[in-house]
Write a structure and sequence with these properties.
With 1059 residues, the protein is an alpha/beta fold. The chain is 37% helix and 19% strand. Strands 28, 29, 30, 31, 32, 33, 34, 35 and 36 form a nine-stranded mixed sheet that branches.
């Protein structure tokens, strides 16, 4: 069927800020969709609130609105643009929910806007439990028995009927909060009681637990002509009971017999046809390992997290084709745009194994709840491809960047058998490493399988890895064993450990004996047809399929998996860098291990290597491609850390050189550089042990800021007020040594700002200064920021510009660098310099209209700023005000304190832009889900040292008409200063009038909570903060943020004053 001609203008809704459970994959899908629709000649209007990604770039749609995804703003844009149709199935749950709201509010009918792709009724059928149950019964597809209950007794009765274990899912709570698995009556009693309390409608779903079944996913496509096919099937290493987003996954399925595979395939296609889904769909199934019994777990009637993985694993661009199906094209008339030869109706076939391992944030949150369950906790993922399971699994392990290069964590050797036992049974994010350790200790795989329900086939592969290790131990320097180990994915470092030599020596033995990898193409059809993609993975086999071209090439190193502190912004910079390289006539080659993002899309680079970002894997590609050089500036800390080893191996680093990178990263060299350039910085020292740290702090004076050097996103950075706390920090938070010194600096309280500078060695372009709304002490990634600066005098701006130029020229920066300043009194100090692109690049590129990463790449290749038409110095400010607000995922991370501090905790960001600061702030708050009504009640629970400042704030809320509530001490202080407030009980005194109770019953609209300067655990505060987060009540832990919110409310309300 030809595409529709009655539609001209289509609106696409994006997925908003990146949070756990809805990350960069949806952004990748949305980008693909917009480009595909424009390719077909439609005018595309995009609405999204996330400035950090490629999706909100000008080129992606005809008009891009970076506005909050709320009914208020989306309706305005609909009325202004009057599109013919709306495509909501590519923006994750956010886009779907928005479409539902618009439909219910009658706006789509009023404006005559049609919904494309999957119909709302089908979405309803897949999302609504009762309708879904009904549909499955009609199709005779089995689903786990379940019942909705309103009392604990009903829950116990139903469980007695179907038998334990059961799962409790409270209705209408975010991300499965309050639910859980119950193995017996006592557990059910407790969890059901809690779940009913947390559910706003006091109801829970009790369902049969199918934990221990195999979990299988099918990615399927269907078009309006009822053609349907399976793009990819995947099998979880972990059995049912762990969220798929948190599971290790292999594609294609590994342990299913042909009968089982066909049975589940038929079920998936039957379901997608019955739901009449047009586009992509994801079906999750559970299969009993001992019989042919299966259950349908869930159907996602949209492009899902696995779609990005499935697209990259098979070379079949799901989102692109889904968008074209939505406008009426069919699978049998479209060519797969990746291969250019096979039709979209052709099911991909794989002759390799793909492994996905999730990346968790627990290296940052040591106290977080690491137990895995039905709530997702991973922030990102890595993917690796190999010819066998062992190879792809080991490649994935070393792509994770958690300090391991094999499936082992050396520390676990010290764990007792009992500890090992517990960690194997109660799954945590690092269960794979515990299982591997158990195998090394001689536990049989049958025992482990009984404990974990993980299929013996997978455990046998882990056993095989151990057997190869033993082989290597017994036959040192044996080339046959070396070849075998490399074929199964061992890296040089592991072999070197066993053979007691250096990794360089192992590399040399390999090169001398021609034991080098070849690169295989992902051709989507197991080489059965003529088909080619520019997309390769390494393996130790015979024929190399990656042919070096005659064009001069440059390799751009990506940033690996998405994690807190190194997010999707680096991916943005990577894509822009490639555009500039291609425009300059080079062949652009990307190396990256992250399947979720735009940089690893087939259409971005000329060649893509899906490989771990380790020295060995990068060198192998360089040996083959012989590039002009490597660009490390855009891959975050991951790529910067590779600069030195690559440079030592004789590889040319393009842009700022290693010695200068070191001057910015190494403390002593950096201080020397600042002294030479005559730039002030807070007084500070480097300490290699506890006593040195204490001596430094005494000399500088408390408070001090302490942190390990060379880290990502401010890990383990703390403000310490006294000697006892400093000693505690040195003992527990970090292991200081001459190799890993700790930096001790004077902590200056003041306003903070940051600058990205682009330099060609002669001139320095400063696109803009971003002023932080929260004062110094909150990590730059977690503070709200505004451009252009609102409170700086011209003198301060001139000083910042001058220091930035001096630093960029003095540190021989070629390309980009990021500098953070603190303004204390009227003096400007430099806090830190990052000799690379930073997380502010996408935001500043969009608000200043300078494609910063492209400009930087052109300078790295030798052009000058003058050639490109840019002047030296600060770029003229824009006339609109732009605010960046961070977005957090605390609902998904139990036991992680939401208190803002010098360590980064946010997973994403949003942007609000308007003519005035207040309007821009309002949009930023709305987009980051911090909505405050015009009237309501606000609680203050304030530490002594900030009570005075909080009083001024409380008076302003009082004047607008907000009810002021406060805990005892704060209320007393307010009363003495002439402000009345309602007293709230302390925790544990009266559980109907404490903060969690008032939050639950909806009395309270916001909480302002500050904490004193002592490092002691503040348990009540943490309980208060987590109760706010669970209920989705805005929580302010920095008074500056609350002040910004007060400004917004004041600007939106009329003043009422008696004469």
């Amino acid at each position: 069927m030809p595409k529709r001609t009655d539609i001209k203008k289509i609106m696409v809704i994006g997925s908003g800020p990146i949070i756990i459970g809805q990350a960069a994959e949806f952004d990748y899908a949305g980008t693909q969709a917009c480009l595909a629709l424009r390719e077909e000649g439609y005018e595309v209007i995009l609405v999204n609130s996330n400035p950090a990604t490629i999706m909100t770039d000008k080129e992606i749609a005809d008009k891009v609105y970076i506005e909050p995804i709320t009914i208020e703003f989306v309706t305005r844009i609909l009325r202004k643009e009057r599109p013919d149709a709306l495509l909501p199935t590519l923006g994750g749950q956010t886009g779907l929910n928005m479409a539902m709201e618009l439909s219910k509010a009658g706006i789509l009918d009023e404006l005559g806007v049609e919904l494309l792709g999957t119909k709302l009724s089908a979405i309803d059928q897949a999302e609504d439990r009762d309708l879904f149950k009904q549909l499955m019964e009609d199709l005779e597809q089995p689903i786990p028995e379940s019942q909705i209950v309103n009392t604990v007794q009903e829950a116990l009765d139903f469980a007695a009927e179907i038998g334990y274990p059961v799962i409790v899912r409270p209705a209408f709570t975010l991300g499965g909060t309050g639910g859980g698995m119950c193995a017996n009556q006592e557990e059910l009693q407790e969890i059901a009681e809690n779940g009913l309390k947390l559910s706003p409608v006091t109801q829970c779903l009790i369902e049969r637990s199918i934990a221990g079944f195999k979990e299988i996913e099918y990615e399927v496509m269907r078009d309006s002509a009822d053609n349907a096919l399976v793009v990819c099937n995947m099998e979880n290493f972990d059995p049912v009971g762990i969220h798929t987003g948190d599971s290790i996954v292999f594609a294609p399925t590994q342990t299913l017999s042909d009968i089982e595979n066909q049975m589940l395939r038929d079920a998936s296609l039957k379901i997608i046809r019955a739901l009449k889904i047009e586009g992509g769909c994801n079906v999750q199934l559970a299969l009993d390992p001992h019989s042919f019994k299966y259950y349908v777990i869930e159907v996602n009637p949209r492009v899902s997290r696995s779609s990005a993985l499935a697209s990259k694993a098979t070379g079949y661009p799901i989102a692109k084709l889904a968008a074209k199906i939505a406008v009426g094209l069919t699978l049998d008339e479209m060519i797969n745009p990746v291969t250019g030869t096979t039709y979209a109706m052709f099911e991909p076939a794989l002759d390799y194994v793909v492994a996905k391992i999730p990346r968790f944030p627990f290296d940052k949150f040591e106290h977080g709840e690491r137990r895995l369950g039905t709530q997702m906790k991973a922030t990102g993922e890595v993917m690796a491809i190999g010819r066998n399971i062992e190879e792809s699994l080991l490649k994935a392990c070393r792509s994770l960047e958690i300090g391991v290069h094999h499936n082992e964590v050396p520390e676990l050797a010290g764990a007792s058998d009992d500890q090992l036992f517990e960690k194997i049974v109660k799954a945590q994010d690092d269960r794979l490493f515990y299982i591997s350790e158990a195998i090394r200790r001689g536990f049989t795989i049958e025992e482990i399988s009984d404990l974990t329900k993980i299929d013996l086939f997978f455990l046998d592969k882990l056993l095989h890895i151990f057997e190869i290790e033993e082989d290597l131990k017994s036959k040192i320097n044996d080339l046959d064993v070396l070849k075998e180990a490399k074929r199964f994915g061992f890296d040089d470092r592991k072999i070197a450990e066993i053979w007691d030599m250096t990794a360089e020596q192992v590399r040399q033995i390999r090169l001398d004996n021609q034991i080098v990898p070849v690169y295989k193409m992902v051709d989507t059809c197991a080489a059965e047809f003529e088909s080619a993609t520019p997309y390769f993975y390494s393996t130790y086999a015979f024929e190399n399929e990656s042919i070096k071209s005659d064009k001069e090439s440059v390799i751009v190193l990506g940033s690996g998996p998405i994690r807190i502190g190194q997010g999707v912004e680096f991916d943005y910079a990577t894509v822009h860098s490639v555009k500039a390289l291609q425009a300059a006539g080079y062949e652009a080659i990307i190396m990256n291990s992250n399947p979720e993002t735009v940089s690893t899309d087939f259409s971005v680079s000329d060649k893509l290597y899906f490989e771990p970002l380790t020295f060995e894997d990068v060198m192998n590609v360089i040996d083959l491609e012989q590039p002009k050089g490597v660009i490390v500036q855009f891959g975050g800390q991951t790529a910067i850390n590779l600069a030195e080893p690559l440079s030592k191996a004789g590889v040319k680093i393009l842009g700022t050189q290693v010695a200068d990178l070191d001057r910015a990263e190494d403390r002593d060299l950096f201080e020397q550089a600042l002294q030479d350039l005559d730039i002030p910085q807070p007084p500070g020292h480097t300490a290699t042990n506890e006593e040195e740290a204490v001596a430094s702090a005494r000399q500088i004076g408390f408070p001090v800021l302490v942190r390990p050097s060379y880290v990502l996103g401010g890990r383990a950075m703390e403000i310490v007020e006294n000697e006892a706390d400093l000693r505690a920090y040195m003992r527990t938070a970090v292991k200081a040594s001459p190799d890993h010194p700790v930096l001790v600096d004077s902590y200056l309280v003041g306003r903070e700002c940051e600058v990205d500078a682009i330099s060609d060695g002669k001139d320095v372009l400063i696109p803009g200064i971003m002023e932080h709304i929260e004062r110094a002490g909150v990590h730059s990634g977690d503070s709200m920021a505004v451009y252009p600066p609102q409170t700086f005098s011209q003198e301060i701006i001139d000083t910042i510009t001058d220091y930035t130029k001096r630093l960029a020229i003095g540190l021989n920066c070629y390309g980009m660098m990021n500098i953070q300043f603190v303004i204390h009194g009227e003096t400007v100090y430099v806090i830190e310099v990052n000799p690379r692109a930073s997380r502010t690049v996408p935001f500043l590129s969009k608000v200043t209209d300078i494609p910063m990463a492209q400009v930087a790449t052109k300078l790295i290749l030798g052009q000058s700023l003058a050639d490109l038409g840019y002047k030296d110095g600060l770029y003229p400010e824009s006339d609109r005000v732009h605010v960046k607000a961070p977005v957090f995922s605390f609902t998904k991370l139990a036991k992680v304190d939401s208190l803002l501090g010098p360590e980064m905790k946010s997973t994403g960001e949003v942007m609000g832009s308007d003519r005035t600061l207040e309007k821009a702030l309002y949009k930023a708050f709305e987009a980051s889900y911090l909505h405050l009504p015009t009237f309501g009640n606000i609680i203050f629970t304030i530490a002594d040292d900030t009570k005075e400042e909080a009083l001024g704030l409380a008076k302003r809320f009082d004047a607008i008409g907000y009810g002021i509530y406060a805990t005892a001490g704060t209320a007393r202080y307010f009363k003495n200063q002439g402000l009345d407030s309602v007293v709230v009980n302390k925790l544990g005194e009266d559980d109907t009038n404490d903060i969690p109770a008032l939050v639950r019953t909806g009395v309270i609209q916001a909480i302002v909570n500050t904490v004193g300067t002592k490092r002691t655990a503040d348990e009540d505060g943490q309980t208060i903060r987590s109760s706010a987060i669970e209920a989705g009540v805005p929580l302010f832990t920095a008074l500056d943020t609350a002040d910004a919110m007060a400004r917004v409310l004041e600007s939106r309300s009329f003043t009422t004053q008696a004469i």
